Amino acid sequence: MKAVVLDGYALNPGDLSWKELEELVDLTVYDRTAPEAVLTRIGDAEIILTNKTLITEEVINNASNLKYIGVLATGYNVVDIEAARRKNIPVTNVPQYSTNAVAQLVFALILEICHNVGYHSSAVKKGRWSNSKDFCFWDYPLMELTDKTIGIIGYGSIGKRVAEIAQAFGMNVLVYNRSQKEKVIGKQVGLDELFATSDIITLHVPLTTDTKNLINKDTINKMKDGVIILNTARGPIINEQDLCDALNSGKVYAAGVDVSCTEPINSDSPLLRAKNIFITPHIGWAPFEARKRLMKIVVENIRSFLNNCPINVVNGVVLDESINRH
Q1: Is 263 a catalytic residue?
Q2: Which of 33, 91, 296, 301 is deepest in the core (most CB within 10 A)?
Q3: Catalytic annotation on 282?
Q4: What is the DSSP track for 188-252?
């Protein structure tokens, strides 16, 4: 079977190998693909793999040989999964490969906000400490996490891992999840209670019509003065202008985000004008170990599809086992 990777560079900029996939399929890898080139590059391929390149209904309807769409990520909002379902094309994702990496970044952002490590290190190198009248100095309030309350919105694998780490720091943990969990670390509460009582709020939900703009002027007004907001999920979950306004007014003390409504971030994004915000360029998923794990799961997804029993299917398509896909 012919397979095309439309935007392989982010997953594999050269430190991984496509060899295991090449042993399964006739593979063509493009580093990046512009929207207008998607159909041309798919050509007569039966399998396409995408990370952030959009696979629209038009693409699905006009890729005449298409039999499988694999997303090189956990989130699959880049694919019109209903259009694929109507054509009986399974769409798969890669769950849980980045759990530890993303949770680690959450606390990298929290700890940077607590101590401003980068700023103070830079100040020392510029001579501030050498010229200080005292044995120490700090230019921002320093914060201890013990006994602070963290509100975790979304209790999937990443949310749970964040809760475990927070508990190790001695934090109080509140959890909101759309469905009731039988057992959580900390206490499961409604959104309003989480907003009202959390010192730190961190987002771990997928982007859906229900979660888009979940954090906005109205919900921010329900939060404590001086709250800290973190987003390592998807950019549009936060209304960026509302967050910017809240940061600049002091309602929100600080924010840490790894995602933006448009990626790469627009040069006129309100986030770039906000006070006390730490922005990373969507790197939560990207440690080598996580990407290596992702590649391994992608290979297993393809192998399972070729054996007529696809795994990690997100659009409910079940294949006819009598069809030989090799």
Answers
A1: yes
A2: 91
A3: yes
A4: E--HHHHHHH-SEEEE-----TTTTT-BSHHHHHTSPTTEEEEE-S-GGGB-HHHHHHHHHHTSE
